Amino acid sequence: MKKIGFTVFMFLACILFVFPQIGQAASATSIYLDGKALDLPKNGEIQNINGNVMIPIRVVVEELGFDVNWDKKTRTVTIEQSGTVIKLTVDSSTATVNGKAVKLAAAPKLVSDTTIVPLRFIGEQTGLKVSWDNTKKSAYLITPNSGSGNGTGSGENAGSGSEAGEPEQVPDPSVDLANVGGISFANNRLMIAVDKNVTPKVFTMTGPDRIVIDLPNTKFADTFSNGQMLDETKNGYLEVTEYPDVSKVRYALFSDNPSTVRVVLDMNNAKYYEVVNENDGIIIVNLDAVAPSEPAKPGGNGKKLVVIDAGHGGKDPGAISVTGNREKDFNLAVALKVEELLKQETDIDFVLTRSSDTYPTLQDRVKIANDLDADLFISIHANSGSASASGVETYYTRSESKALANIMHKYLVQSSGLSDRGVRTASLHVTRETDMPAVLLECGYLSNKSDNALLYTEAFQDSVAAGVVEGIKEYLGMN
Ligand SMILES: [Zn+2]
């Protein structure tokens, strides 16, 4: 199966805006994938419904080699793509991606026997480059590694609705748009010149690595194209050759309602960055910033962000103790006590991967931490083994987590009063796939009678929770 990143589908989205009337099929539309015309099903034209371009989903994703299943009873389309499961239901404006609800701009529709879905959603969920030719009524989709086509689009800045002069899409004049006057990259910094205060939304995407900067309520200044490339579809790019982390800077009018300029840094590798926005006319994304997760860094004025992960939950009870206690309940109880203690810490922000008896997948837990650029990830578990095994262990996977593991373990031993079974390495999903120092604490053995009896006492849980917070503070240089 071709591996398509999250970006491909995004570009398709913009295409949709240029179509004509609501609910009216555009005539003789075509979709080209890597230069090859796809056979559109009968009545499977691209359509514009309430301003959203809708494309027949099956023909595109099947051609990409994704698994597509249609459940007639629930009217649900399930698309599977290298570990990502996307579910779309006809007439429901909520889709799910790996079980998480995602709002759609428009509900998928069943037209004859063909399900059509918003192009924007497709664009957001894949890595295709997309462009739209309004004259030829054709969408061009390019897979990132196809080697075909070049410059027909620029990844997730999938087309804009502005180029075709769609009257319904004229921005609300009451919104005072800021002008983006120029975009440059120097000294390992992206610099974006704006003529009004703008609050950028910055996030990362992977496969390939990108840093995405959305600038709400902005447009390109009329003079922008004098200084740098901007084609008629309001797309352009800068090649970056002197800096090893970045290969290209792309930019586009990503949306015209609300008008949003998107700038994308195509990265050669994931990299920590800092956004500097002092409302002085220049927004900076600094790739030379020192990651706050490096404990050597003095102070820092920003708060640290800690992710607390109560292991298992919901359908997954974890280990079952000798007396029938469920590991998930212990893990959650400690996590909630850690939460209460962290609320007292003014310099630490925190996020729990779960705060009730639910089951986020391991991928969800990692994604929460990575998306938030958290500084630390602490997973709380209890162990199970032979009846005689007793004590605590701390696990990590990547070497950058070792210092955290050593400190957390010291406090775990102290606060639990149980025997020290050592700091260990193991290739565990949550400690391996996270981007920040991450540890998994095994706070005793549920298979051991005396450990088990202790673990479900309030006093033990209070003490371990306090130890976790002390460890976090020591690692972050706060105590
Ligand atoms: Zn566990």
Largest beta sheet: what is the strand line-up? 26-25-27-30-28-29
CATH superfamily of the largest domain: Zn-dependent exopeptidases
Say how many strands there are. Answer: 30
Overall body shape: globular
- Biggest beta sheet summary: 6 strands, mixed
- Quote the average pLDDT: 80
Cα separation of the termini: 50 Å
Which CATH architecture of the largest domain?
Answer: 3-Layer(aba) Sandwich
- Per CATH, the class of the largest domain reads Alpha Beta
Radius of gyration, CA atoms, in whole angstroms: 25 Å
The level of helicity is 10-25%
Q: How is the CATH topology of the largest domain named? A: Aminopeptidase
Percent of residues in beta strands?
A: 25-35%
Tell me the structural class.
Answer: alpha+beta
Give the low-pLDDT segments. 1-27, 145-172, 294-301
Number of structural domains: 3
Hetero groups bound? Answer: zinc ion
Pfam family, one: Cu_amine_oxidN1
Signal peptide: 1-25
Domain MurNAc-LAA: 366-473
Region (Disordered): 142-176
Question: Main attributes?
Answer:
single chain; alpha+beta; Immunoglobulin-like; Aminopeptidase; 3 domains; 5-stranded antiparallel sheet; 10 helices; globular; disordered N terminus; binds zinc ion
Provide structural commentary.
There is one protein chain. This protein is α+β, with helices and mostly antiparallel strands. It folds into three domains: 8-142, Copper Amine Oxidase, Chain A, domain 1 (2-Layer Sandwich); 177-286, Immunoglobulin-like (Sandwich); 304-475, 3-Layer(aba) Sandwich (Aminopeptidase), CATH 3.40.630. Helix content is 20%, strand content 34%. It has ten helices and 30 strands. A hairpin with a 2-residue loop joins β7 and β8. α5 (327-342) crosses α10 (458-475). The two termini are 50 Å apart. Mean pLDDT is 80; it is low at 1-27, 145-172 and 294-301. The structure holds zinc ion (ZN). Zinc ion binds at residues 311-312, 318, 327, 381. Zinc ion is lined by residues 311-312, 318, 327, 381.
